[in-house]
Amino acid sequence: MEQLHPAGTGYSIPVDDYTPTTSVGAAEVIPIERTLPLPDTTPPQTFTLLERVKVVNQAASDALRLRRGTRSPKDPDRLVFHDSDEEMPAHLRRQLARISIPFVFCPHLNGMEASATFLPVHGELVAHDYEVDGIIGRGSFSTVFKATSLDYQRPVSLKILRNEKDCFDAGLGEVRIHSLIIRNDPHSRRHLLRMLDCFYFREHLMVVTELLNSSLLAHYMHLELQGKREAYYNAQTLGMLSAQIIDALSFLHGLSITHCDIKTPNICIVNAETRQFKLIDFGAAVLTHDTHTSYLQSRWYRAPEVMLGCAWGELIDIWSFGCVVAELALGCPLYQYNSIELVLAAIKATRGNIPTWMLEAHPIAQMFFSASACAYEVDPLRMPPGTYLIRSAPHTELRTILTQRLDPASFGNVGIFVTFLEQLLTVDPKERPDADACMESPFLKPFAHGLRLQQGVNVTETPTTTETLMVEDGVCALLNAASIASRRPSRG
Q1: pLDDT, tens digit, for every residue of 196-245?
Q2: Within this chain, do residues 247 and 130 fall inside the same structural domain, yes or no?
Q3: Does 288 lie in the same domain as 232?
Q4: Which of 147, 167, 163 is nearest to 155 (CA)?
Q5: What is the DSSP letter of 8?
Q6: Beta bridge pairs of residue 130
Q7: What DSSP string describes 337-349?
Q8: Backbone angles phi, psi at 116, to 5 degrees
Q9: Among the four residues 72, 115, 149, 376, which has the most C-beta atoms within 10 Å?
Q10: d(Cα 134, Cα 121) in Å, to the nearest integer?
Q11: Residues 185 and 246 in one domain
Q12: DSSP characters for 72-93?
């Protein structure tokens, strides 16, 4: 750790080197199963949660239009920003860290690239090591390729960030999160995607990670077409999946990291036969003291406190994962709707009334709920113009939906599973359990115990500001991690 003395200050600023020490060759080579193509559409809901009732009284309709306003919830002045409830201590503000990212270039050229876009083709060599096989997927900020590391003869995932400042900065943020993970989980035991390399090449930031198998979305939809989804995603599989991902969330939350984008495309299979999974994509992750916005998470997995403009924290990940578990059990997203008001109405239909304090926390809730707490729409898509009240259809409680559709003979203990899912999908974040509490639920506890035995470490232990516990070959070693701010914030 290098001590820097800024001009005009009387104190030293510690600058820790967070550069990942993991190389491509150091990561375990995992046999890759056939990757399934990402489906174009998600399966439709097979059950009805909501009913529309048109408001025929003109005065009442006009009042709802006025309450709604003319702007979209996505408009900048409709977004809600929250700073951390707890001000960052001064000693943390003075703390700095360093990541060294290699700059790979031709020493005989110094001009700008002919094109701002770099999309390598099949067989092209990137940075003299990564031979591109093809595109895995595209996102708003990047394109992901399947490639082969020639130095280590193993398949990898190569993410190329777009040559734009916002994209570059987002990529740096993702590298920072990966570096925190590697620093505190050096042996990759916490079910999180492993970064292997990062570098700057041809005016693009590039991030290399291990190549995993299909996402949960592609996998369950493939099984659905074969009529095998229910047989695979039973209580046993969902228990093993939940133990691993909630363990990953416990680890992240212990480092003050909120993932912010838990969904079926962002959980990948490591080994389908042994039910091993990993959480991926940290591009949206935030730390405790970052500013929090109300526009994040994919809509179908978005926590109610986010949509309603409430202050939020790590427990939004628990809600999103509950949506993932429900989706796998049902074969379709639980809250598969094209507007925030419909998603909120569906949450109310399946989980009961939304607490009054959440509806009163911010004026943005008026765009979705009337003064009597009834969800409403104004000029919805593919409907005649007008205002509509959104009401719950009969028998839409989450427990009713699941018990009607899950066969105990093939699924397992439906009752204990539903109770676990109800805990994850607790509407009030003040009552929603955190990751460690979820691991103690009757449904998950047997799987969590098996996970601890498999890891050879008590997974409920999270790194502290002074030590990181790791276990390898039966020998415990204490690694100094004094610069990692990993204390769990108070839930108040």
Answers
A1: 999 999 999 999 999 999 999 999 999 999 999 999 999 999 999 999 99
A2: no
A3: yes
A4: 147
A5: T
A6: 126, 149
A7: -SSHHHHHHHHHH
A8: -75, -10
A9: 376
A10: 7
A11: no
A12: -TTSGGG--EE--SSPPPHHHH
Closest residue by Cα to residue 277 from 291, 285, 266 = 266
- CATH number of the domain that residue 368 is part of: 1.10.510.10
pTM recorded for the entire structure: 0.84
Distance CA 209, CA 418 (A): 35
> Structural domain of residue 347, as residue ranges?
76-82+214-461
pLDDT in tens, 369-418: 999 999 999 999 889 999 999 999 999 999 999 999 999 999 999 999 99
State which amino acid sits at residue 240.
M
Annotated catalytic residue 261: yes
Domain boundary among 210, 241, 263: 210
Taking the C-alpha atoms of residue 143 and residue 338, their distance in angstroms, rounded to an integer, is 26
Domain-embedded: residue 65: no
Q: Which amino acid is at 230?
A: E
User: What phi and psi values does residue 409 have, to the nearest 5 degrees?
Assistant: -65, -35
Of 129, 185, 247, 261, the catalytic one is 261
Find residue 142's DSSP bridge partners: 161
Please spell the DSSP secondary structure of 383-449, one letter per residue.
S-SSEEEEEEPSS--HHHHHHHH--HHHH--HHHHHHHHHHHT-SSTTTS--HHHHHTSTTTHHHHH
Could you tell me if 180 and 240 lie in one domain?
no
Two tokens, residue 421: 């899912």
**Chain position carrying tokens 């925190």:** 180
Q: Look at residues 194, 210, 226 and tell me which one is the last residue of a structural domain.
A: 210
Could you give the CA distance from residue 128 to residue 162 in angstroms, rounded to a whole number? Answer: 20
Are both 305 and 439 inside the same structural domain?
Answer: yes
Q: Distance from CA of residue 214 to its chain's centroid?
A: 16
Q: Which candidate, 332, 334, 286, 333, places its Cα nearest to that of 312?
A: 286
Task: Please state the length of the chain.
Answer: 492
In a domain, 433, yes or no: yes
